[in-house]
Write a structure and sequence with these properties.
The structure holds two protein chains of two kinds.
Chain A (H helix, E strand, L loop, with lengths): L2 H16 L2 H27 L6 E8 L4 H8 L2 H36 L5 E6 L6 H14 L10 E7 L16 E5 L5 H23 L3 H8 L7 E3 L4 E3 L3 H35 L3 H5 L4 H33 L8 H28 L3 H20 L1 H6 L4 H7 L5 H10 L6 H29 L9 H10 L1
Parallel strand pairs in A: 1-2, 1-3
Antiparallel strand pairs in A: 3-4, 5-6
Helix pairs in contact in A: 1-10, 2-4, 2-10, 3-6, 8-10, 8-11, 8-12, 8-15, 10-11, 11-12, 11-15, 11-16, 16-17
Chain B lengths: L1 E7 L2 E7 L8 E5 L6 H8 L7 E3 L15 E4 L11 H11 L7 H11 L15 H13 L5 E5 L7 H16 L3 E6 L2 H7 L2 E6 L2 E7 H7 L4 E6 L6 H6 L3 E7 L2 E6 L5 H11 L2 E6 L4 H10 L5 H21 L1
Parallel strand pairs in B: 3-7, 3-8, 5-6, 6-7
Antiparallel strand pairs in B: 1-2, 1-4, 8-9, 10-12, 10-13, 11-12
The chains are: A alpha/beta, B alpha/beta.
Chain lengths: 466, 321
């Protein structure tokens, strides 16, 4: 093995892949722009909310006492007040999750939301509900815009006579029936329904001689952040979002980086073979040097992706003041497992690339590799939920999916013990050596073979041959 | 090379070839398509490894250790389509262990010499096939190798470029480099090589200098063209010392008896028929090859082989034209 030749091949491989406009735009600029656009998208999507529904809600109140409550509850001022309170709660939550910046953003976004506006109209207690339904149908059928948008009938609510007052003790309370115009916003429907329910309940308390304030006081238990007891002391129980966010990001990043390098390796190998440039190269270096150089070159491509994405990720964590969510050790192990995963995948890709004549033929051999890359996704939920379960531990020891499982476990809040990490790395190193050995054999024989693409049996024959 | 043998599955590509190529010589590998030339060359280059037998290149056990001293133009040759011509050559030079200092001017110098100076900054894919081939030739000699192996170097070149390449090859030979090149077009080998290796069905069937081959395979025949180009075979065969006469492409091929003197026979023929042209037939490699393959037997076998051979060379000529 001549290292300067490996270095030259790697250099060309890296330059021809990563120093192209396509790569820089596709792999680096697009995600960077996306990241910059996320706040903008959030604001725009909030601003682009479908205009809030406005219109009339008819109340056919057989009980005669609920209507007044509904009118207050669904008055524009009350609705506005409730929505603002809700926005404030969300902003506070976001602050806890993502720091001041996140809170500000949510607050901003909420400011754009428009509240629905209702005109509540009672009908005569003996009115025919069918007439109002017909009126809605007529409005729908005419299809024209009404002069006054408030004329649009959004809903009609029929409240039972015994909704708030039991007819006799042996029977329960009555209820209500709501009819809506189709395609209303979810918020509109929710607001009307909850307003009606709140009002009915209000009347029931009153009739039963109970005090609402007292009831809500009785039913309310203030929340406190739960703590987790650890060996060192105690810590805030990690929020659901945080437990999932980091492992899923790590997994996706690892898959993207390994697949990018691997895919490029496959294409450049096929290209060299179909260009017939390969024999020219083989006159200057050995197949092993060529393969090693190519794998190392594409490793550089994967690594540069990782470094860029990781920096963006870390920058984001710093911005949201949550750098405590990952440790330096996690990052180092992340790179270690990237290399292990990459070398296994790359040797498969190099072997496939050398064995086939064009991209089309590569597809059938690629299928098992792609399926293999899907496996970590299937294990995502069970592994993240229980990073140290039997399943997680066992799958951690099966190369080539092992690095992907491990990275989820390591970046979870409950990382595996160091000894196990070391053992997994060792197992993967064996996996890397075996797959490189296998690839080197196929690579050497396959490079100069043209014609029928090999099946598994021919591949095995080649391995024996080399 | 010592009884080198190579099989692909059940097919024997090269069976027991012994070969010694002295330094500074220029050797031609000839033989029809699929004879085993490329496989032999690939084994010399250590791109393939023999199943059995031994070989040493430039005093080393295999070419692996002396790749930088060998220049190789494979038959299956290509370039990186998206790479610029000069960049490709610089890369190949670096891969061959050359220093980057002075490499660029050297590449430019070579490009000028093959009249491709203006394409240095073009992408390889923009070049014609012939141009690419010349670029690839540079890649094989750029690092001043001691041994140059050219597999079918002329295929796909027009006559002008063929001559240019032939001059370049001769120049390398004159500079004391060892040159091996393969071709299935026998005339090319005749015009360049001083030593011929003929390979047929994986076996070496001939290994001699051109002069010796000509002596050994002297067909003892005379070509006679009559003034009116008409058939005079009856008259000619009546001349004493003539074994037989056949007409090939309008020319009488007169085969002499073993003991007959060529000068005397020519004199006799001149006396017998009106002649516009008469000459002693020189053996072509094509004839030698056919003779070897058919084992000297005549008839249909002969013509089969000839047809097979011609098919090969015609194909090349068509590409060239």
């Amino acid at each position: 093995m001549n290292f300067s030749k490996i270095f030259r091949v790697a250099g060309r491989e890296f330059a021809s892949t990563a120093m192209t406009k396509g790569f820089i735009i596709g792999a680096l600029v697009v995600p960077a722009v996306m990241a910059a656009l996320i706040p903008l998208i959030a604001i725009l999507s909030a601003a682009a909310q479908p205009s809030a529904d406005k219109g009339t809600v008819y109340i056919l109140d057989h009980s005669t006492e609920v209507y007044a409550e509904i009118e207050t509850r669904l008055s524009p001022e009350e609705i506005r007040a409730r929505w603002e309170a809700r926005a404030q709660r969300a902003a506070n939550f976001a602050k806890g999750m993502m720091g001041q910046a996140g809170g500000d953003q949510v607050e901003n976004a909420m400011g754009f939301i428009k509240t629905p506006e209702f005109r509540i109209i009672p009908t005569a207690p003996d009115a025919d509900i069918e007439e109002i339904k017909t009126e809605i149908r007529d409005q729908l059928a005419s299809g024209t815009e009404l002069d006054d948008p408030m004329q649009k009938i959004l809903a009609v609510i029929e409240i039972d006579i015994d909704a708030a007052n039991k007819a006799n003790d042996s029977e329960g309370y009555g209820s209500y029936q709501a009819f809506f115009r189709p395609k209303l916003n979810e918020e509109t429907v929710g607001e009307i329904e909850s307003g009606v329910r709140w009002s009915i309940r209000e009347r029931r308390y009153e009739n039963a001689g109970l005090d609402r304030d007292q009831i809500s006081e009785l039913s309310k238990i203030n929340e406190r952040d739960s703590k987790e007891i650890t060996e060192e002391g105690e810590r805030n129980e990690s929020s659901e979002l945080a437990t999932f966010l980091i492992p899923v990001a790590a997994l996706v990043l690892l898959i993207i980086a390994t697949m990018t390098g691997g895919q490029y390796l496959l294409t450049t190998t096929i290209e060299e073979k179909s260009n017939r440039v390969v024999e020219v190269l083989l006159s200057a270096c050995s197949p092993m040097e060529l393969m090693t150089g190519k794998i190392v070159g594409q490793m550089g491509v994967g690594l540069s992706l990782l470094i860029v994405y990781n920096s963006v990720g870390i920058a984001a964590l710093i911005a949201f003041n949550r750098l405590d969510m990952i440790s330096g050790q996690t990052i180092i192990l992340f790179f270690v497992f990237f290399l292990l995963a990459y070398f296994m995948l790359a040797s498969m890709m190099a072997a496939i690339g050398a064995a086939v004549n064009d991209m089309r033929e590569a597809q059938s051999l690629m299928t098992p590799v792609m399926l293999m890359m899907m496996i970590p996704y299937f294990f995502f939920m069970p592994v993240v939920r229980a990073p140290n379960s039997m399943l997680s531990t066992v799958t951690s020891f099966i190369p080539p999916i092992s690095p992907f499982i491990m990275i989820m476990r390591i970046s979870s809040t409950d990382p595996p013990p160091p000894l196990q990490i070391a053992a997994v790395i060792l197992v993967n190193l064996v996996g890397v050596v075996v797959s490189l050995w296998f690839a080197a054999k196929v690579f050497r024989v396959g490079l100069l073979m043209y014609g029928k693409p090999p099946n598994l049996r021919t591949l095995i024959k080649w391995i024996k041959m080399a | 090379m010592n009884s080198v043998r190579k099989t692909f599955g059940s097919k024997v590509a090269v069976q027991g070839i012994d070969l010694a190529i002295p330094e500074g010589s220029i050797y031609g590998f000839i033989g029809p398509n699929g004879a085993g030339k490329t496989t032999t060359i690939r084994m010399i280059m250590s791109i393939l490894f023999p199943d059995s037998g031994e070989l040493s290149v430039l005093g080393k056990k295999s070419a692996v250790e002396s790749k930088d001293r060998i220049g190789y133009l494979p038959e299956e040759r290509g370039v990186y389509k998206k790479m610029k011509v000069a960049a490709f050559l610089v890369y190949m030079g670096r891969l061959k262990g050359m220093d980057s200092a002075g490499l660029k001017p050297k590449v430019m110098d070579w490009l000028e010499r093959i009249e491709l100076g203006e394409v240095a900054k073009k992408k390889c894919e923009e070049l014609s096939k012939g141009m690419q081939q010349k670029v690839q030739f540079i890649a094989s000699v750029l690092h001043e190798p001691d041994l140059i192996i050219l597999d079918e170097p002329f295929s796909g070149l027009d006559p002008v470029n063929m001559r240019l390449l032939r001059d370049l090859i001769n120049e390398q030979h004159t500079a004391g480099k060892t040159v091996i090149f393969s071709t299935h077009v026998m005339q090319q080998a005749e015009s360049i090589c001083d030593h011929i290796i003929m390979i047929h069905e994986g076996k070496k069937v001939l290994d001699d200098t051109l002069g010796d081959i000509r002596n050994r395979f002297d067909p003892r025949a005379i070509h006679v063209d009559t003034i009116n180009h008409d058939d005079q075979s009856t008259l000619i065969s009546a001349v004493p010392g003539i074994a037989n006469v056949r007409i090939h492409e309008g020319i009488h091929v007169v085969k002499l008896d073993e003991s007959m003197d060529k000068q005397q026979a020519m004199q006799n023929i001149l006396n017998a028929v009106p002649v516009s042209r008469i000459e002693i037939k020189r053996p072509t490699l094509e004839d030698v090859f056919i003779e070897i393959v058919t084992g000297g037997s005549s008839g249909g076998d002969h013509e089969d082989v000839r047809a097979k051979l011609l098919a090969g060379s015609k194909e090349t000529q068509e590409v060239a034209s």
